[in-house]
Amino acid sequence: MFLDQLHGVALYYPVILKGLGMTLALSFIGIVAGGIVGFILGVGRASVHKPISFIVGAYTDIFRGTPVLVQVFVVFFVLPEAGIELDSFTAGAVALSNIAACFISEIVASGIRAVPVGQLEAAASAGLTRLQQLRLIVLPQATKMIVPALVGQFVLLVKDSSVVSAIGLLDLTRSGWVVVQNIPNGLLVFTVVGTGYFLICYPLLYLSRGMEKHQAH
């Protein structure tokens, strides 16, 4: 019986592979777009100008404090009421990129704030502008501290991408629901689905641990 079901799941490999591809595509967009926007927001969050820091902080706190699924629903179902029509893939990509940017911004801001103030004061006394201080002193040091945390955030993004199945996208999670309708063995089917997520996330986890060990030495 089990072997028959395993064979049946294997016959649905095109569906599972399509879902895996969708998850990879959404995760890649979220990592790239979220990383770029998150970096910009992080610089603003760590800004010495209090109004900028406050506005960025308030924005990121709103999205970090609400469920990802709710944000996906808002982008897909609510924005059309304001005249912004997005297909399910674009809505999922926008929501995931935004939530990634909000979490990444706090990581970047923390890294920037961890740079000793004395180094900035020395740079200022040497005549460097704030932009030069950021580019030459702050970012090179902050990057070494924040990269492991960023990789960990990327792993969370891959797992959070499963919520897009709620708006009809055939990602890895939804492909599992499609298969389980025909192969009534949820444990087997979602073990395969879970393995797919593990294969995506494990290289990132391995990379993160390697970076943390490297920094420890």
Task: Give an overview in words.
The protein has about 220 residues and is an all-alpha fold. The protein has one domain (about 1-215): MetI-like fold (Orthogonal Bundle), CATH 1.10.3720.10. The protein has helices at about 1-10, 15-45, 50-65, 70-80, 90-115, 115-125, 130-160, 170-180, 185-215. The termini are far apart. The model has no long low-confidence stretch (mean pLDDT about 90).
What is this structure's SSE topology?
Elements: H1 2-11, H2 13-45, H3 50-64, H4 68-78, H5 88-113, H6 117-125, H7 130-160, H8 172-180, H9 186-216
Helix pairs in contact: 2-3, 2-5, 2-8, 3-5, 4-5, 5-7, 6-7, 7-9, 8-9
Going by helix content, strand content and strand pairing, the class is: mainly alpha
> What is the first-to-last residue Cα distance?
53 Å
User: How many separate structural domains?
Assistant: 1
What count of helical segments does DSSP give? Answer: 9
Strand content: under 5%
Shape category: elongated
The proportion of residues forming helix, as a percent range, comes to over 70%
Strand tally is 0
CATH topology group: MetI-like fold
Nearest-integer average pLDDT: 88
Largest sheet: none
Written as H for each helix and E for each strand, in order along the chain, the element string is HHHHHHHHH
- CATH architectural grouping: Orthogonal Bundle
Which CATH first-tier class would you pick?
A: Mainly Alpha
